[in-house]
Amino acid sequence: MPTVKEVLASAGLDHTSSVVRAALGKAPLALNATESTGKTSGSSTPGTEEKTQANKVILGRGVAGQNIYPIGPTTHPLLWDWNKTIWKAAKEEGLDPFNVIYWMCRRDTLLGAAARGGFPVNLPHWRNGMEFRELSTGHEYALQRIYEMILNTNPSHAYLLEGNEIFDQKLVMCHCMGHSDFFKNNAWFRNTNRNMMDRIAEHSDYVRTLQRTKRVSPLEIEQFLDQSFSIEGLIDMDNTTPEPIQYEVFQTKEADPLPDDYGVIDTSKMPPHIARRLNDPAVIKQLQAEERTRRDQELRMLPKHPDRDILGFIVKHSKVLKPWQRRLLGFIREQAYYFAPQGQTKIMNEGWAVYWHQYLMNRPDIKDYSEIVQVADHNSGTLAMSPTHFNPYTVGVAIFKDIKERWDKGQHGEEWNKCDDRAEKRQWDTGDKKGLEKIFDVRRRYKDTEFLHEFLTPDVARQLGLYKFTHNEKSGYYEIETREFKAVKNQLVAAISNGGRPIIEVLDGNFKDNGELLLNHVWAYNLDLKDAHETLKNLLFMWGKPVHLNTKDAIVEEGYDPETSEWKTEKEEEPYRITVDFVILVNKDKEKPGIRIRYFKLHEHGAETEHFKEETEEIHEEDLQFMSFQIKNDL
Q1: CB 543 within 8 A of CB 604
Q2: Max CA-CA distance within the chain?
Q3: Which of 209, 272, 434, 492 has the fewest beta carbons under 10 Å from its own?
C-alpha cells in the first residue's frame, strides 16, 4: 500500500507545503479546524475514540482527472462518486479545469476563509474579523449564504459547506468546474501565481515572525497595514505582467558620460570653410552642456512615463519606509495583482460558472428528478435580480446564453445588422451551430468591459430590466433616468472599468526637483473627496514628502432654454490640484505636527494659479511614534 507521501507525489503535490501539512494535521489549516488549535472535529460530542478519529483527515483518491482531495470523516461517501462523475462530464463537454481539491468544512471555517480572501490564513488584521462578523450576521439572519468558494490555484481549492444536502454539493461541484476552467483558460489569468495558497501563508508567517522576535510591535504593524490597505487598489489593473520589485534610491544615480565627440560632425569630405562653420568649438560646447542638462533632468524624472502601479512605485522609490514596511507593502501589492483579474472578469467568471452548473446538472448522468425543485429554488435565489442591486451572475449567464443562441442561428455579422425587418430577424436561422465554439472563444479572450461593450444587446438589457440611474439632489435618492440602451450600456461599462475604482497614475516622483510625489487622476467622474483626503494622507506617511494630485470637477449647469423650449444641460470641467504636506501647527504657543490639505486651480498645462481652499489637522500621538522619519527635522 503506498504511503501518504507517495500518494501526494503522484498527485503532483509537495508533502512539505502548508496546505498539505494542514490536511495531514501538521498546520492550523485542517478541515473543520479552528485557527487557534488546528484540530478537526468530527462531531459535536465525540468520545475519546471519536476524537482520535476526528483529528485525522482522510485522503481520498479521486479518479478521471481528480488526483486527490481531502474530506472530513463525516463526509457522505456519495461525494466521492459524484466528484468522479462531474469531473468526467465536464471534460466531455469541453471544459478544461485544473484538478480541484474540495475542503469539507463547517460554517465558521468557511466564513473565516472568506473573510481572509478565500485563504486559510492571510496577513493578520482587524478587517478580517470585521468581515467575518458581517458574513456571520448575514448567514444568521438569512440575508446571504455562501454556497461555494474556489481559489485560482493549481490545483484549485474549493470549499464545501458541511451539512449541505447532496444536491447542494453536486451543484457546487458543477459550479466549480466552470470557475476552474475559467481560471485556467482566460487570458487575464494566464500570469497569476498558481501557488498563491502557500505564498500567502508565507506572508502571514513573516508578520508573525516580526511579532515573535519583538522586532516590531503588533500595534505598529497594524497601523502600517491600515495605511497600506487603503491604497491596495492603486495598481495597474490592466497589466497582467507587473514588473518585479527592485529597490533603488534614484538620487544616487549618475548620468551616463557624454562621448568626447558628441556634437562633432564628420566633415572629412567637406570644404574647409564649411567644416569650420559646422564644427565651431563654441557651438559644440553649448550642445554638450545642453545634453548634460537634459540627461540630468531625465535621470531625476521618475517615472519616465505615467505609471499606474503606485504601490510598486512607492515600494521601489520611497526613502522613508523601513525594510519590513517595504516588504509588507510588497506583499499587499502581490495580492492586489493576484486578485485584479477576478475584479476585471467578475461578470464573465460568474456567468460562465452558472452556465455550466445549469448545463451539467441537467445531464442524464447527474440529473436526479427528486432534486428538481430544490435545484430550481437555489438557481432562482442565485439569479434573483434586485431592483437596486446589480447581479453579475444573472447578467453574465444571460449574455453567454444569448451569444450561444445567436451564433447557433447565425444572428450576427454584416447581413444580420443590415436587416431591418423584425419579423425576418425573429425567424433568422442559418443553422451555423457555432454557439458553443463562440462562447469558449469569448471565455478565453475577453474581460468584463469588452464583454459588455461587444455582446450586451438591447434584447438582453430589456430582458434583465437594466436602466441608467442618477442621484436626485433634492430627494437624496437614486432614481431611474432612462432605459435607453446606449446610455444604460455606457453607464454599466463605466461603472465596472478599473474594478470600479478611479484611475490614478504617478506623473513625477521628483516633483519641483524636491522629491515630492505628483499624481494624476485620469478623469472620468468626480472623486469622493473624503476618500481622496484619507488616501492622500496615508500616501504622505509612506512617501515622507508632499503629495500632489491633479484632478477635475465636472460643473453641471441646468436650465430652461426659451429659444429651443428644452431643458438645457451644460457641463464644464475645472482642473485643480490637491496638495497634502506636513506642517507645524501652533496652538497656545505649543508646536504640534500636523497635516495641511490645500487646493489650487490649474492652468491647462498644469501650472498652479489661485489657492482657494485649505484645511489642517493634528497628527495623533500614536501615529507619530510609529513614523519612519521626524517631521520637524524634515521641515
Answers
A1: no
A2: 108
A3: 272
Dist CA 333 CA 311 (whole Å): 6
Place of cell 481520498: 60
CB 445 within 8 A of CB 187: yes
pLDDT tens string 346-397? 999 999 999 999 999 999 999 988 888 988 988 888 888 877 778 899 999 9
Q: Give the bridge partners for 591, in sequence order.
A: 586
Whole-angstrom distance, CA of residue 227 vs CA of residue 311 = 12
pTM, entire model? 0.79
By the 8 A CB rule, do 152 and 121 touch?
no
Strand partners, 521: 504
Q: Report the helix count and the strand count for the chain, using DSSP H and E.
A: 25, 13
CA 237 to chain centre: 7
342 touches 392 (CB < 8 A): no
Task: Quote the DSSP letter at residue 142.
Answer: T
Asked if 492 and 465 count as a contact pair (C-beta separation under 8 A), the reply is no
The three grid cell numbers given for residue 503, joined into one nine-digit string: 484611475
| Length in residues, the chain | 635
Check if the beta carbon of residue 358 is closer than 8 Å to that of residue 400: no
**Backbone phi, psi, residue 349, to 5°:** -60, -50
List Cβ neighbours of 367 (8 Å cut-off, separation of 6 or more).
Answer: 361
Which of the residues in the chain have pLDDT under 70? 1-76, 246-256, 297-301, 555-572, 588, 604-606, 628-635
List the 100-105 sheet strands across, edge first: 100-105, 156-161, 149-150
What does the pLDDT look like over 53-91, one tens digit per residue? 333 333 333 333 344 444 444 556 777 788 889 999 999
